[in-house]
Design brief:
It is built from 3 helices and 8 strands. The chain is α+β, with helices and mostly antiparallel strands. The protein has a domain of 94 residues: endopeptidase fold (from Nostoc punctiforme) (Alpha-Beta Complex). It has a 6-stranded antiparallel barrel with strand order 2-3-4-5-6-8. The termini are far apart. This is Peptidase C51 domain-containing protein.
Length: 158
């Protein structure tokens, strides 16, 4: 008698596995990456992992903790984001919220006008939460950042 419902139970379990928002670690390492996307959009002459951009840009490009359109927000490397991440500021919405464009926050996608909120204690953009489409809101985790890189050479900034 119990075996009669077994196929239905298996079907329900398989349907649950079809969640389109389940990502494997490997899916974040596909052909679309945040650093080449940001480099192409901003003209920054930086290479390597996104987290290395902060150190590479020191003395070459202006660093700031105040977002401006066109600047690049650099995320530190963590266990969840081992290579770091970079996002391009589109515009500032409020003192603690900006909209960014970035690639591969969701695997294989370019997202535009994504909210990022400063949750740092000092209001200096060193800790942020990022919009996560699968939950239609800010993600639960916060991510450490270095700050913003201006695509202008450091000699051009005032």
């Amino acid at each position: 008698m119990t075996f009669r419902f077994l196929p239905l139970g298996l079907l329900v379990m398989l349907a649950a596995c079809g969640n389109r928002y389940e990502y494997s670690r490997a899916s974040f390492n596909g052909p679309l990456q945040c650093a080449p996307y940001a480099r192409e959009r901003t003209g920054l002459k930086l290479r390597g992992s996104a987290a290395s951009w902060w150190g590479q840009s020191s003395g070459r490009y202006a660093h700031t903790h105040t977002p401006r359109p066109g600047e690049v927000l650099v995320f530190r490397a963590t266990s969840r984001v081992p290579s770091g991440h970079v996002s391009i500021v589109r515009r500032q919405v409020s003192d603690r919220t900006i909209l960014v464009d970035h690639a591969n926050w969701e695997p294989g996608r370019i997202d535009r006008a994504v909210p990022v909120t400063d949750v740092s204690a000092s209001n200096d953009w060193t800790q942020v939460r990022v919009w996560w489409a699968p939950v239609h809101g800010l993600g639960r985790r916060s991510y450490p950042t270095y700050g913003f890189i201006s695509p202008r050479d450091s000699d051009d900034s005032s």
